[in-house]
Design brief:
CATH superfamily of the largest domain: Ribonuclease Z/Hydroxyacylglutathione hydrolase-like
CATH class of the largest domain: Alpha Beta
Order of helices and strands: EEEEHEHHEEEEEEHEEHHHEE
Bound molecules: zinc ion
Number of strands: 15
Strand content: 15-25%
Number of helices: 7
Structural class: alpha/beta
Strand order of the largest sheet: 1-2-3-4-5-6-7
Helix content: 25-40%
Largest sheet: 7 strands, mixed
């Protein structure tokens, strides 16, 4: 099937080097590259007087040292989390020790998926800390105000239930910018891996971004990109097409997740088959929630699938 998406892989950066993307927005890339994290996790310092840090990233002493050096004698007053995947939150304890900042984010959440929790290693981007409680709880529409910055939270579940995007108003008539976390990135589509990843939520969260007016987006991995509303629309179309092709596949008699992977992801690199199976499982859950297919319980990679 033709892919309607075009990815933006280019990214200018160096590990340990601060990069000013716009006034009061400085990006750092952690040295944790992988098929799930691309070049590494992005951390952002916001503000010009006292600062906020968006996503400390993995536990990585040189990464934190680069952030602290760039902050200089300016205080980091807040550490803000887009979500609690380990490659975003593992560096939090050391960052808190270094800054004494207050934490802000969505906070704990229950798992609602029927899919059992994954065990064992599942790639650097996986495993959320769903019991994490920030000092300041931000829900949809919540605002975090600093000395010369303000971040408005947009609840964007799907990649994880606790995922927040943030809109930053810029000074001097500059257009607002959007921090999209792992919800929308330009280098690849977001991983939707059950149980914390839920496709129905993800699609609704894409629609939410489609109504945004920010002109530039700063993602959790990969380089900045323009027009996040348009990118969200392209990703929504892509997922709807995939949803339709998976439904067709099951209607045609394919009765297992692995069978769907073999048909829909023909010729896929073998190392990515596990990730593809999780993505298909997310579609299976979404199709089954809408009563478009039947899947044997409990929902898992070995569920038997049938058309309705
Ligand atoms: Zn993530």
């Amino acid at each position: 099937m033709a892919e309607p998406l075009s990815f933006k892989a280019a990214m200018e950066f160096a590990y340990g080097e601060p990069r000013e993307l716009s006034p009061g927005v400085v990006r750092f890339v952690a040295n944790n590259p992988s098929p799930y994290t691309y070049k590494g996790t992005n951390s952002y310092l916001i503000g010009t007087r006292s600062l906020a840090l968006i996503d400390p990233g993995p536990e990585d002493a040189p990464h934190l040292a680069a952030i602290m050096k760039a902050a200089g004698d300016r205080k980091i007053t807040h550490i803000v989390l887009t979500h609690t995947h380990r490659d975003h939150i593992d560096g939090l304890p050391a960052a808190l020790k270094a800054t004494g900042a207050k934490t802000a984010g969505f906070g704990s959440y229950p798992l609602v998926s029927e899919v059992a929790e994954r065990t064992g290693p599942g790639g650097e981007g996986s495993h959320t800390d769903r019991n994490w409680q920030p000092d300041i709880v931000l829900k949809d529409g919540g605002r975090l105000q600093g000395e010369d910055w303000a971040l408005d939270a947009i609840h964007t579940p799907g990649h994880t239930p606790d995922h927040l995007a943030f809109s930053l108003s810029q000074p001097g008539g500059l257009p607002d910018v959007l921090f999209t976390g792992d919800h929308i990135m330009a280098w690849n589509t977001s991983v939707i891996a059950p149980p914390e990843g839920r496709l129905g939520d993800y699609l609704e969260s894409l629609e939410k971004i489609m109504s945004r007016t920010e002109t530039v987006a700063y993602p959790g991995h990969g380089g900045q990109f323009d027009n996040p509303a348009r990118v969200a629309r392209a990703y929504l179309v892509h997922r709807r097409m995939r949803d339709a092709s998976i439904l067709e596949c099951i209607k045609g008699g394919v009765d297992s997740v692995d069978g769907v992977v073999a048909q829909v992801y023909r010729g896929l690199d073998e190392r990515l088959i596990g990730a593809a199976a999780l993505s298909v499982l997310a579609h299976v859950e979404h199709l089954s929630e809408r009563a478009l297919i039947r899947a044997s319980s409990p929902l898992s990679r070995s569920s038997v699938l049938s058309a309705v």
